[in-house]
Give the backbone structure.
Amino acid sequence: MRFYGRVWGALDEYRFLHFECCYYAAIEFAIGHGIARVEAGAQGQHKLLRGYEPVPTWSAHRIREPSFERAVARFLAQERRAKDEEIEASRSLLPYRRCDEGG
């Protein structure tokens, strides 16, 4: 089971509301309810500082215009390679030791 932390804004400005809702409260809730995984959402190098490992995300769309669909598919293939490289580079910044490193 996974818990997804999201906040889409508020009528007033509250300092750190995003981090409280998406990270701290989400982790506390997950621990209290035996949920093994908290997903904090896509994007953001700031998540590395809070111990969230970068993972790929996906979405599904249907594009009805064939030529536009092909153009989007080409772009996404390039984007996927770039994101995979970015994720791998970001993982090296995490404060965790990988299981295959021993020790």
